[in-house]
Write a structure and sequence with these properties.
Length: about 140
């Protein structure tokens, strides 16, 4: 996931091209560690509760990703409004991270990402409520 994050940072506007190199190094490190560390395999597939909770969170959070069109938040370093494409890419990355943890580690993975899952569900419910209230006016 680190390699993907750096890759996105190197490709999205405004690109930080040196992050493409960092992405490659992160990916190479992952490959080398996977080759030399034998117990990185998934022992069992995801259980039904993990699949169902993943489907619910994914469905809810896809609404957030799809409806993110304008961002008012500003960056800490620059004070400029955040780039919408970068925000959406980060949302997709967060969703993929949550799914990887949940599917790879099962119930333990779900417990590990509870704060992220709670934030994703909270943001999703807020967005759905906002969409519902704005359409009923």
């Amino acid at each position: 996931m680190t390699a993907v994050a750096f890759l996105l940072d190197g490709l999205l506007s405004p690109p930080l091209r040196h992050h493409l190199l960092v992405s490659g190094l992160a990916f190479l490190t992952t490959v080398v560690l996977t080759i030399f560390h034998g117990d990185i395999t998934m022992e069992t597939g995801p259980t039904l509760p993990v699949v169902l909770s993943s489907a619910v969170v994914t469905g809810l959070f896809l609404v957030v990703i799809a409806t993110t069109r304008k961002v008012e938040a500003v960056g800490d370093a620059t004070g400029k409004v955040l780039n919408v494409r970068r925000v959406r890419a980060t949302q997709v990355l967060a969703l993929l991270t949550a799914l990887l943890f949940a599917w790879w580690d099962g119930a333990y993975g779900l417990v590990t990402i509870l704060p992220l899952g709670a934030a994703m569900i909270g943001v999703s419910l807020y967005r759905l409520t906002s969409l519902f209230l704005s359409s009923s006016r």
